[in-house]
Design brief:
Elements lengths: L7 E6 L8 E6 L2 E8 L2 E6 L13 E3 L4 E3 L6 E3 L16 E7 L2 E5 L2
Antiparallel strand pairs: 1-9, 2-3, 3-4, 4-8, 5-6, 6-7, 8-9
The structure holds FE2/S2 (inorganic) cluster.
Length: 109
């Protein structure tokens, strides 16, 4: 099936993703990390743009809204997907997160 109109996936009940929490979901073989930065939800691909590190598993700083790649330490801005420090220099994919009927959802296409 081809879907060009965009795809929305459900992540979890909003109560399971409180401020400071994160969640990993998988869609079409792609892992996505969903983060709650002080009440605002952000989602990025769980694959570092430097060397494919499991980015969303790194240290999450909800006040700064950043995550640090566990492989070589690049710090990524979750609001934009852009790295703030080397060695990564390219942004990672971001996804729009929303809350619909108390469920966290992502626009994945
Ligand atoms: S794989 Fe993320 S900084 Fe190298």
């Amino acid at each position: 099936m081809t879907d060009t109109a965009g795809t929305t996936i459900s992540v979890c009940p909003v109560a399971e993703l409180p401020p400071g929490a994160r969640r990993l979901v998988e869609h079409d073989g792609m892992k996505i990390g969903v983060f709650n930065c002080d009440g605002t939800l952000y989602a990025i691909e769980d694959r570092c743009s430097h060397d494919d590190g499991p980015l969303a598993e790194g240290e999450f700083d909800q006040a700064a809204c950043t995550v640090e790649c566990p492989r070589h330490g690049s710090l990524f801005d979750l609001t934009t997907g852009r790295p703030k420090t080397l060695p990564a220099f390219k942004p990672v994919k971001t996804f729009a997160a929303a809350v619909v009927d108390d469920t966290v959802t992502l626009e994945v296409a």
